[in-house]
Amino acid sequence: MIDLSNVSKTFTLHNQGSAVIEVLSDVSLTVASGECVALTGASGAGKSTLMRMIYGNYCAQSGAIRVGRVDLVQSEPREIIRLRREVLGYVSQFLRVVPRVPTLDVVAEPLRAVGVGSDEARTRAKELLTQLNIPERLWSLSPTTFSGGEQQRVNIARGFAHPYPAMLLDEPTASLDAANREVVLSLIEAAKARGAAIIGIFHDEAARARVCDREIDVSRFTPGMSSSSEAVGHCNESAA
Amino acid sequence: MTPSSEYNFAYLDEQTKRMIRRAILKGLAIPGYQVPFASREMPMPYGWGTGGVQVSAAVLTPDDRFKVIDQGADDTTNAVSIRTFFERTAGVAITTATTEATVIQTRHRIPEVPLTEGQILVYQVPIPEPLRFLEPRESETRKMHSLEEYGLMHVKLYEDISRHGHIATSYAYPVTVEARYVMDPSPIPKFDNPKLGDCPAIQLFGAGREQRIYALPPYTQVVSLDFEDHPFEASKADHPCGLCGAEDSYLDEVIVDDAGGRMFVCSDTDYCEGRQAAGHRGKDAA
Amino acid sequence: MTPLLSVQGITKRYGAHIGCADVSFDLYPGEVMGIVGESGSGKSTLLNCMAGHLRPDAGSVVFDTRGHGPRDTVTMSEPERRMLGRTDWAFVHQHARDGLRMGVSAGGNVGERLMAVGARHYGDIRDKAVDWLERVEIDASRVDDRPTTFSGGMQQRLQIARNLVTGPRLVFMDEPTGGLDVSVQARLLDLLRGLVRDMGLSAIIVTHDLAVVRLLADRLMVMKDGHVVENGLTDQVLDDPQHAYTQLLVSSVLQV
């Protein structure tokens, strides 16, 4: 379901002496449907960077990143957007929403985006919020005012609203208490059971051991720092 | 009265009259289209009918019989002074009888007696642009005319209904000419609008300050704008004339005493006098 | 799939000065594209060239019309282009008073486009106007009030209702949230997002506010000195900018 081959990533800091930072090189990995794979490695190894590349948030300098039939390295924005809407879910560590939109609608939105009716989407959102112990009195409020843990749970509810065939989870259990951690792990297990291919970053070793089938140490793709100022491949830069 | 030798015939010089006639001919060729012309200074202030006077000056011939009405009346200041002006500068015959006149200059009315072939009705127009109410840019209104973008006219009528429950525009009611140009018929009451269409006479419109001439050749199709659920109605005060008893003419309301007493009389004085002479009497007739 | 709008080599010069140069892109149905850049970068010139307000010196703006398929709107006749402007296209101005008739009631403002395309039934026009006022969260009781009595945010929502009433397929927006309070902006953004989703609208949004494009736009084009320096998925361009100028632009935003 998720297939990376020979992917590399560099950052070129044009405004800081054109420093080129090589972050990842020659990444190849495969995650099958129903499988959950953990990305491991020390802080700075590039776990989050890799995950963002799979989501299309960072662009790769070379290689191929296939999710389903779409290669994110080659695709047009609209193809990536469609992939994100229908196939590829992402639970980031941060909740990014339009201010003043009620929590219920924030959670229901991924379903509305794939054409689910308003009532049905809200019903599903209510189930998830109940499951994740977000008190009903908060549903009509915007999550921007919530505590970190509450925001994280809203983010998870939103991420699990639509049954994506592929999911990326960035620290889904961080800052959760035991009860909510248990809910999230069971959501992940349920997603696996229905056949989702999942890549996750878990600092919580017990959680990792419980839901992950394999671990991939990202450090092995991480070259040493370099300050070479050679030109690098362009992603979307116009030949201006 | 003999024409004063101090003036060229009908006051304007021949070049100016030719220029105005060209504008009139163009207007007749494109019914409802506003033709720009180089309006001249006239010996009267703007707003007193300088556009109409210039058009009259350009169409009058020594054989014409000239009538001027102001709000339907032959005997108001404006009507009298314009009539006298052409009597003196052109030496034309004058009349108050609609049927006898060959050229009629009017402000705010169309005579009640149906006009006939060979007659010319000249309107004094204050604001020729019907779109001006909502679109102040001349460049834009011209484009709207040329591209037939007239949705805005209905916005004006929409506003009327939303505010008053019905189309409250009672004069200068916009019309579509030959299914093409939207035209301001000058501030005639909407009661007169049906007389604009299919009229045997030539109708010419002159706006002096705005420097525009437009025209309706005889038997032109003229349709008043409206909504399907708020159709156009040529309304008038629901009374007979107090003097002649006419029920089909446009009426002025006249306050007759300090106690709120009032009477309704024909605004067309020639029509009213004609009926009275024929023996018709209203309830207020002496 | 046919692009809804295909822009090829749009160039506009003001004498020796370049407004925008050789801009090309395809916009597909349902896509929302942001154009960002600082003042004078050519983004408004480009928008006005695309929307038919300015005639480009070179290039084509091909729109997939309902009746006749893809047509170059630069070379089509002016009546056709203006008809598009009243039907399939909408233009939301930064200042609501540029896009509204301030002397006409809210209902008349919304109804104008309907009347412009031939609606002649007062009751139907008014019903539609009321429906649209409610959709943009303006109380139906305000239908006969003039926009001069509305707040800035309400005026902007009225402008949006007025534009969307004929069911356009492409909306051009020039700094739609500029000049509004931050809290009013948020409500407007949410409204726009919902309308874009529910009506399947495509939109091109010119703004200098990166937060606005992040929330509204699927994809982003970055302009500098009349040229497009970078384009791509909105979050990718903002989070992993490739061009020096984009990196500068993104790093210059104050973090709240």
Largest interface (CB < 8 Å): A-C, 27 and 32 residues
| Overall outline of chain A | globular
Assess the beta-strand content of chain A as a share of residues: 15-25%
Instruction: Catalogue the unreliable spans of chain A.
Output: 225-240
H/E element order of chain B: HEHEHEEEHHEEHEEEEEH
Largest sheet of chain A: 5 strands, parallel
**Strand segment count of chain A:** 9
- Name the structural class of chain B: alpha/beta
**What structural class results from the helix and strand content of chain A?**
alpha/beta
Oligomer: heterotrimer
Range of strand content of chain B: 15-25%
* Integer-rounded radius of gyration of chain B: 19 Å
Describe this structure in words.
The complex is a heterotrimer of chains A (about 240), B (about 290) and C (about 260). Chain A is α/β, with parallel strands linked by helices and about 240 residues long. Chain A is built from seven helices and nine strands; from the N terminus they run E-E-E-H-E-E-H-E-H-H-H-E-H-E-H-E. Chain A has helices at about 45-55, 75-85, 105-115, 120-130, 150-160, 180-195, 205-210, and strands at about 1-15, 20-30, 35-40, 60-65, 70, 90, 165-170, 195-200, 215. Chain B has about 290 residues and is an alpha/beta fold. Chain B is globular and about 50 Å long. Chain C has about 260 residues and is of the alpha/beta class. Helices cover about 40% and strands about 25% of the residues of chain C. Chain C is built from ten helices and ten strands. In chain C, helix 4 packs parallel to helix 6. The mean pLDDT of chain C is about 90. The interface of A and C includes residues 15, 234 and 240 of A.
List its salient traits.
heterotrimer, B: 286 residues, alpha/beta, 7 helices, C: 256 residues, four-stranded antiparallel β-sheet, 10 helices
